[in-house]
Amino acid sequence: MGLPYKVIPVNIGKGEQMAPAFLAISPNNKIPAIVDPDGPGGKPVSIFESGAILLYLGEKTGKFLPKPLAERIPVYEWLMWQMGGFGPMPGQVHHFIALENEQDRAYGLKRYMAETRRLYGVLDRRLDGRDFVAGELSVADFAILGWAWRHPRHKVELSDFPNVKRWYETLMAR
């Protein structure tokens, strides 16, 4: 895209993704994340999650994101396909293939259930003091609700996440 940049490594092996300074940029404590010192209105902006970063940079530069809506549709579809499937699933293969001996179903359930609870916690912190995840009701809320409504199947008690519970009840009442 021809933009100047500086790479700042985050050593996840040492837990640097949990540092308050990094969490201020990426509340999900995951990489990648960027800070654009020349964001909207000339003010710095931080962006986390690969899809959001790519859409932001495409909008900002006018590159790699077609202007006509009809041409953007397949870009959106395939970006979401990657984010929702072809990323998370191969990533789990990377994790499990690195194990030296066979693990049983309990290990996988423990890993995925812990990550699910962690994500509910991220959502709960985001909703603290907010009615909706992005400020106003948006497609992001609807996308998240599509999974949160299955919290009983996730073995997650919403009472453990009071902000999520309030948000969930508000959306379900709609």
UniProtKB/TrEMBL annotation:
Residues 1-65 form the GST N-terminal domain. Residues 68-174 form the GST C-terminal domain. It holds the Pfam family GST_N_2. PANTHER family: DISULFIDE-BOND OXIDOREDUCTASE YFCG (PTHR44051:SF19), GLUTATHIONE S-TRANSFERASE-RELATED (PTHR44051). Belongs to the GST superfamily. This is Glutathione S-transferase.
